[in-house]
Amino acid sequence: MPKADPARRIAWEVMRAVDTRDAYVNLLLPGKITDAGLGGRDAAFATELTHGTIRRQGTYDAVLETVTTKGLAAVDPPVRDVLRLGTHQLLSLRTPSHAAVSTSVDLVREQVGHKPAAFVNAVLRKVARNDLDAWMRRVAPSRDADPIGHLSVVYSHPRWIVEALRAALGDDADALERLLEADNDAPHVTLAARPGLTDTDRAELEAAGATPGSMSPYAYQLPSGMPGGLSAVRGGRVGVQDEGSQLVAIAAAAAPLDGDDAAWLDLCAGPGGKAALLGALAGERSATVTANELQPHRAELVRKAVRGLDNVTVVSGDGRKPAWEGASFDRVLVDAPCTGLGALRRRPEARWRRSEADLDSLTTLQRELLGSALDSTRRGGIVTYATCSPHVRETQEIVEAIVARRDDVEVVDATRLLPQVVDLSGPYVQLWPHVHGTDAMFVAVLRRR
Ligand SMILES: C[S@@+](CC[C@H](N)C(=O)[O-])C[C@H]1O[C@@H](n2cnc3c(N)ncnc32)[C@H](O)[C@@H]1O
């Protein structure tokens, strides 16, 4: 019996782990690629297969629904994932049909058994009869009759997410389509080269082909995705961080402040990307940072991220019940837990895992954390509230509710803190993948009166 191709087997194993034990692709896949000894093109193919298939699953399921006699729900999940992988190769990669079909048959034989092999062969041959555009004309709801349903199938986003993004974009149909398309592109690897970089570090980045970002003075784009080999990354002076996340830390540090600027707090710090940049920025002003994280194992990740910064103290606790005394901080960042709808490019499974029902508990937590951040800030101090989601319930509505409820809070125009960023309309900053090439970070800056 022919053995399954290792890249396809790995992609399938990751999809099964996502389905059966809520695994995270970004955590699981790199180890599997290393264990299988894949490098270069094979590693890139395994990554593209896994990320691409999971991202476009909604589109492929709509196709598979029409070519399976009893519908996709009647197909055994391990076989269904083989079909999705084969469909991705047929409709989105340039894999020749005979190769996409025969490797899928090998995979199902090896992993599931002989019985479904003929079924997989027959279904994928039907998929191969049309290209992606022709399939979309056949299976997607009409754009006129059901515009959200149309976009949901064509761009493979759950309906509730399309609706939420449309609302966040103020019903701009062109922008919505560009955003959905951008969510399906693999993002570049962006590095944050923190203040204090040595000339040797800079030379190493240049030698690796890294080019400066356009909005954060600390950002570098890498042409390929293997930053772990750089000594500046291993030494903690450079970290992998989206340029949008860097802008959050930059805005938090830039907001004008009267009086002391010595004690900063990062209330929700894990895994520590922003804490590390904030720590380096605070260090330039001889300020200290307390980095707080609820989950002890994530607090450990923060400790790792800030190694080498002796002005950062990491603590683990619930940010709603602070361990510190009263309103003692000059600057506080609340990078709140959220649905992550702004980082769908980066986390292929996230769009299928979240549901609208998550919003109720998340928005309650966000409100409580922002309230606690304000209570931890001295009068005249600054609180920056950020999410990697543009959902209006997690962004504007949280900020506006607290401003309406408390008489000691005023909104600072955050767009003025980031003059290098185009296409912003204040007072909040909302970044977008299709406009800024970043995750869709939201930033609001508040002053405690
Ligand atoms: C969006 S992430 C923060 C990302 C981080 N600032 C960075 O740049 O790496 C939100 C974090 O808040 C933590 N968290 C959730 N509930 C919390 C709470 N009640 N108090 C403090 N942290 C909490 C989560 O465990 C998660 O690590």
TrEMBL record:
GO terms for molecular function: RNA binding; RNA methyltransferase activity. InterPro entries: MeTrfase_RsmB-F_NOP2_cat (IPR049560), MeTrfase_RsmB-F_NOP2_dom (IPR001678), NusB-like_sf (IPR035926), NusB_RsmB_TIM44 (IPR006027), RCMT (IPR023267), RsmB/NOL1/NOP2-like_CS (IPR018314), SAM-dependent_MTases_sf (IPR029063). GO terms for biological process: regulation of DNA-templated transcription; RNA methylation. The active site is at 388 (nucleophile). Residues 165-449 form the SAM-dependent MTase RsmB/NOP-type domain. It holds the Pfam family Methyltr_RsmB-F. PROSITE patterns: NOL1_NOP2_SUN, SAM_MT_RSMB_NOP. Keywords: Methyltransferase, RNA-binding, S-adenosyl-L-methionine, Transferase. S-adenosyl-L-methionine binds at residues 268-274, 293, 318, 335. PANTHER family: NOP2 YEAST -RELATED NOL1/NOP2/FMU SUN DOMAIN-CONTAINING, RIBOSOMAL RNA SMALL SUBUNIT METHYLTRANSFERASE B-RELATED. May act as RNA methyltransferase. Belongs to the class I-like SAM-binding methyltransferase superfamily. RsmB/NOP family. This is rRNA cytosine-C5-methyltransferase.
